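Memo to structure team: turn this sequence into structure tokens by end of day. - J.P.
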Amino acid sequence: MNGCKSIANSIKKMAIALRKQYRLKPPDAIIAATAKSLNTLLLTTI
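Reply from structure team:
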């Protein structure tokens, strides 16, 4: 698994919280938590 990276604990915890609060799928929660931790705008389509 050369392309896999480890995720910071703070992002993991935030992803879990976002997943519970908004019922996100795991990849979406990780992306949202990463954007939030970097204080960046996350754009998406519905």
